[in-house]
Here is the input.
Amino acid sequence: MKPLIIAIDGPAASGKGTLARRIAEHFGLAHLDTGKLYRVTALGVIEAGADPADPAAAEKAARNVDFARLGEARLLAEDVARAASVVAAIPAVRAALLEAQRHFAHHPPAPAKGAVLDGRDIGTVVCPDANVKLFLVASVESRAERRVRELRERGAAAIYDAVLQDMRERDARDSERQVAPLAAAPDAVRIDTTQLDADQVFEQASDLIARHCGLRR
Ligand code: DC
Here is the structure.
């Protein structure tokens, strides 16, 4: 049987990670946060003492990505996030990570009957055949506020203006790059999360997925 594939895309701190986790748990699907693959790649480059903008070093790190590292706390640091958006603009890095993402979607680990992938290009490039595509959007100010809250909850110092500036730069890099930029697929359903809390986003998304795929809510 063909696995059920849910694609969730959107900019940083739009709520897609939280939503993807909850959707996966709710419907018994496997979850892959594809941003973590770019973060592990970036961390590999940093650990090698190389420059994230160096295509050869970044491609090497992408080819050696270890899925066992996806849960490491170090990946959440802002320097890694920044470097991740730099390596993500390198075509050879995206090509190296593409197969692993598609394999996860089409062969989710048992007993899952499908997979939820969240990222920037899941609906457009990685899984254009996904059963449901969601595209989350939110104002850059509300996303910066969320990121500040997350950072402070983790005990990190965070200054709103700096986070906002960083978010704008990262948005620009993710949206303006040549290969697989952040974009909504024509058949994606957009959800604006600016005024919604995580429960409300989950309600809307799970309702839509259940209806579309004939699942029980
Ligand atoms: O979602 P995140 O912040 O963990 O993503 C880290 C970086 O990786 C981000 O700058 C965009 C990039 N990324 C991407 O280009 N394509 C994806 N499918 C996922 C993330």
Notes: The chain is about 50% helix and 10% strand. Residues 59 and 93 are 5 Å apart (CA to CA).
